[in-house]
Automatic annotation (TrEMBL):
SUPFAM superfamilies: CBS-domain pair, DHH phosphoesterases, Nucleotidyltransferase, Poly A polymerase C-terminal region-like. It comes from Evansella caseinilytica. Its cofactor is Mg(2+). The lineage of its organism: Bacteria, Bacillati, Bacillota, Bacilli, Bacillales. This is tRNA nucleotidyltransferase (CCA-adding enzyme). Keywords: CBS domain, Magnesium, Metal-binding, Nucleotide-binding, Nucleotidyltransferase, RNA-binding, Transferase, tRNA processing, tRNA-binding.
Length: 860
């Protein structure tokens, strides 16, 4: 195991460098020092769950062999960690501090004097073309800005600025940086700051704290805006006004951190200008106190109504019961991408369990233990009117990541760190959900489109179902690929229906009304109803998680269509159409799928989507190829980051996706994208060079196209040939075995065995084949698919002509046994040979009639 560590009293550059190092060494564990600087502590109070930091006691140091030191190059600066690090035998170092006698010998890394250590890691990340999310870029930039004093310190290098430019290109958010970085003041500025700090007057306006501070002095001191900013930081207020009279002029500087305050109108009224959160004015011939009075009078106008828990909470809340086993909770956390659950008993909130608690219990082998032993009891709760600022404060002070929202003893919702972050960042979301989730879905009536585009039988069936649902007071929805294809104007007859209720009971009811046949799967509460007209419909219950985790929930979950849609792969596949009569034809779109469809974009709904189901990465390629869509930047980087999870997927499941990619889509596009996303190493151990793979696939695809254009039927087993094209030449036994492991039918295995016999028999190398009959002599008994592959691999163009001619012959009038008998030949063991000879003659001389051919044979 590798560990990533930095110096004690960790600052932003150290923090950023640790995260940078984790990109380079993804398997390594990031260990926080025991002391953090106050700004990093403040930052991590909110962003703790965003990165997988560990504490020293959470790792098994016996397994640690190597350490990556960042922003430090001597062990004495790593605090208590040094006793553990002393025992390790190898070090990698990325640092910008000078090398001294105490520098640990290192085997890999970079020590160079740049303004910030993160610059060195960014250069390495660029070199390896690793994907970086906008949030990671923000943290990197934060390290750069703070360690270089916003690029003003002497040590700042051109490399630091280039690194910062790259961070901005990657989407770094400057307002977050602005919020956290610090710049030191000169002596007289520090003095003024102290004076102002001592004189602050705090005013509260609808939950917003505003500080006003005034002073009068003779000399002019610059940097008032920096001083005001510091004032804001030190007082923890939401806004600060510094009013300082210097050299007969009053300088007023205002700063705000909360989105709820706009200081500009007050400053404008004093003749100044600026931005909503940073503005200043200068007034001559007045006193500081006069200015302060004017400002106080206007404060109520500049504070916007507050964001409260009600606006940002998630609701309904997924909960667990006190007796739920830790391992079940762990699965639920993973599946839903949550970081914790409230624990509820008889409708009463009794505790909170977090991912950290669960991981700890699992670490000690307590997966079977009930959650009640590990939950935090008497959780801190809030009510729906509590303001965002208070929620933020509670999270920081109490170090809690989620706050249940209660009303009259009932659990109304929950506010997590993610909700707070999202509210703070406006539309820019850095965690969990990639796409914005609307509390109320976007709706659009597409009833006419349904009628116009659907096959009339299907349309009638759907209206019948809607009517039946309405009569039973149920909500039913058409979902999945059919909805997407309807909007794209493409045919699709896979009817998937979600029932808000029990899918099996509804299917059985439909069968009683309309006949047909129902096959149900109890475990998943799904049913397939075959209508008497032959159409098949899949019905699912929108309450599946109840059945997945029967012990977990104290009462039947309130899962709805939104929950069901949220679990799906891409926004374009996560739309539903209401079928129940009262809303028939309403498109339900919580995740902006319709917009993404118009923008030709593929977006996952949540960050763990590919981790949960890595086959979705291959599905994404299928949709890219089929519709000409592209993954958005974040989805593509998630796909890259999750590609290694394909190793854990069964080969047949991967095969099901590859079959479709190679046979239904453009196989060259598929292989290009598979390579772009770095998937190849997670599909096959034995691989050819990319160029060679491409050449083979190009030839095979061209030959396949020639045969299909000439209506030669080809079996779906041909996909194994495409997979084989990815393996090296010559293929070793291990290569063949690896491809065999993916096979899902006997035909797949047979194709590979035949192909192996052809390649290893090297039939084409032995003798020149000039006439079609020569080819037939060698290959008559072989099936088309292995031959097609073999000829493509060895670039034998004439072989493809032979396959076309052979197919033509098979579909035409061939000489048969009866023809030979009619010509007076006696049936016997050599008949088979005679028929082969007849076929060879027919291939070489297609103009001769079968009768002439028989005559020729009889005369021989
Ligand atoms: N689905 C998913 N994750 C998967 C497979 C499927 O979320 N790994 C969901 C998607 O919402 C999908 C629906 O299940 O639309 C139906 O799946 P399927 O029929 O396999 O795919 P389609 O989207 O219909 O694609 P295609 O047209 O290629 O069959």
């Amino acid at each position: 195991m590798k560990v990533i560590v930095s110096h004690t009293n960790l600052d932003f550059d150290g923090l950023a460098s640790m995260i940078g190092a984790k990109k380079l060494y993804p398997q390594a564990e990031m260990i926080l020092p025991e002391k953090l600087s106050s700004e990093v502590e403040h930052f991590l109070a909110i962003y703790k769950d965003t990165f997988p930091f560990k504490k020293s006691k959470e790792v098994n140091w016996d397994h640690a062999q190597q350490a990556v030191l960042v922003d430090v190059n001597q062990l004495s600066r790593t605090g208590k960690l040094k006793t553990k690090l002393h025992r390790l035998d190898a070090f990698i170092i990325y640092d910008h501090h000078p090398i001294t006698a105490e520098t640990v010998p290192f085997t890999e890394g970079d020590i160079r004097s740049t303004g910030a250590a993160i610059t060195l890691l960014i250069e390495k990340i660029q070199e390896k073309s690793l994907a970086v999310s906008p949030f990671e870029a923000t943290v990197f930039a934060l390290g750069l800005y703070s360690d270089t004093g916003a690029f003003t310190y002497d040590q700042t290098t051109a490399e630091d600025l280039a690194a910062a430019a790259w961070c901005l290109q990657k989407g770094a958010n400057l307002s977050v940086i602005e919020q956290y970085r610090d710049i030191p003041l000169k002596k007289e500025q520090q003095h003024l700051f102290q004076l102002l700090l001592d004189r602050t007057e705090t005013i509260e306006e609808d939950g917003i704290e505003i500080v006003i501070s005034l002073h009068e002095q003779q000399n002019y001191t610059g940097q008032l805006s920096m001083i005001t900013k510091k004032l804001l930081r030190f007082t923890g207020a939401d806004s600060a006004f510094a009013i300082v009279k210097m050299e007969e002029k009053v300088f007023i500087t205002a700063r705000a951190v909360s989105d709820r305050i706009n200081v500009l109108p007050v400053i404008r009224s004093l003749g100044g200008g600026g931005h909503n959160k940073a503005a200043s004015a200068m007034v001559k011939g007045a006193t500081a106190e006069e200015m302060a009075r004017k400002i106080r009078q206007q404060l109520y106008e500049i504070v916007a109504p507050s964001i409260t828990a009600e606006h940002i909470m998630s609701s309904p809340v997924r909960v667990v019961a006190p007796d739920t086993a830790i391992e079940v909770v762990s699965k639920m956390l993973y599946r839903y991408g949550h970081t914790g659950f409230p624990v509820v008993e008889n409708d009463w909130l009794v505790g909170i369990i977090s991912r950290r608690d669960v991981d700890k219990a699992l670490h000690h082998g307590l997966g079977h233990a009930p959650v009640k032993g590990y939950m935090s009891r008497q959780p801190i709760t809030i009510n729906k009117n509590d303001q965002l600022e208070k929620i933020q404060e509670l999270m920081i002070e109490e170090q809690v990541g989620r706050l249940p929202v209660m009303e009259n003893g009932e659990l109304l919702g929950i506010v997590s760190r993610t909700d707070v972050i999202q509210a703070m960042h406006g539309n820019k979301k850095h965690s969990q959900n990639v796409s914005g989730i609307a509390r109320v879905p976007y709706k659009k009536t597409i009833a006419t489109l349904l009628k116009r585009q659907l096959n009339p039988h299907i349309y009638e069936l759907l209206t019948d179902i809607g009517r039946e649902a309405e009569q039973r007071n149920m909500h039913v929805y058409l979902i999945g690929g059919m909805v997407r294809d309807l909007l794209l104007g493409r045919a699709n007859e896979d009817i998937d229906i979600v029932v808000e209720g029990d899918g099996i009971l509804f299917a059985e009811y439909l069968q009683r009304q309309y006949g047909g046949h129902v096959r149900s799967h109890e475990a998943f509460r799904t049913a397939t109803w075959k209508h008497p007209c032959g159409l098949k419909l899949d019905l699912t219950s929108a309450r599946t998680e109840y059945y997945d985790f029967p012990a977990a929930l104290p009462k039947v979950e309130m899962s709805t269509i939104k929950e069901d849609l949220f679990r799906r792969d891409f926004t374009i596949n996560a739309m539903g159409i209401c079928l129940h009569q009262s809303e028939f034809g309403e498109l339900i779109d919580y995740f902006h799928g319709y917009q993404d469809l118009l923008n030709k974009q593929l977006k996952v709904l949540y960050n763990l989507s590919f981790v949960e189901d890595p086959t979705r990465i291959l599905r994404a390629l299928r949709f890219e190829s089929r519709f000409g869509f592209t993954m958005d930047r974040q989805t593509e980087s998630l796909a890259k980051e999750s590609a290694n999870n394909l190793l854990a997927v069964s080969k047949p499941r991967i095969a099901n996706e590859l079959i479709r990619l190679f046979l239904e889509e453009n196989p060259l596009f598929a292989i290009d994208r598979i390579d772009d996303l770095g998937i190849l190493p997670f599909l096959l151990k034995n691989r050819d060079s990319f160029e060679s793979m491409k050449q083979k696939i190009t030839r095979l695809a061209r030959a396949t196209a020639t045969l299909t254009e000439n209506s030669v039927p080809l079996s779906r087993s041909l996909w194994t040939a495409y997979l084989f094209c990815l393996t090296p030449v010559p293929a070793t036994e291990a290569c063949w075995q690896e491809v065999h492991n993916f096979c899902i039918s006997k035909e797949d295995h047979k194709l590979l065995n035949d192909l192996q016999a052809l390649i290893e028999g090297a039939s084409l190398d032995k003798q020149p084949l000039t006439a079609l009959s020569d080819w037939h002599h060698l290959f008559a008994s072989m099936q088309t698919e292995p031959l097609l592959t073999y000829f493509s691999l060895v670039a034998a163009e004439q072989g493809i002509d032979y396959l076309l001619a052979r197919d033509h012959l098979n579909n035409g009038r061939k000489v048969a046994g009866a023809d030979l008998i009619r010509a007076g030949l006696k049936p016997g063991p050599d008949f088979k040979q005679l028929l082969l000879e007849a076929e060879k003659l027919q291939l070489d001389k297609p103009d001769l009639s079968p009768e002439t051919i028989v005559k020729l044979l009889a005369d021989q």
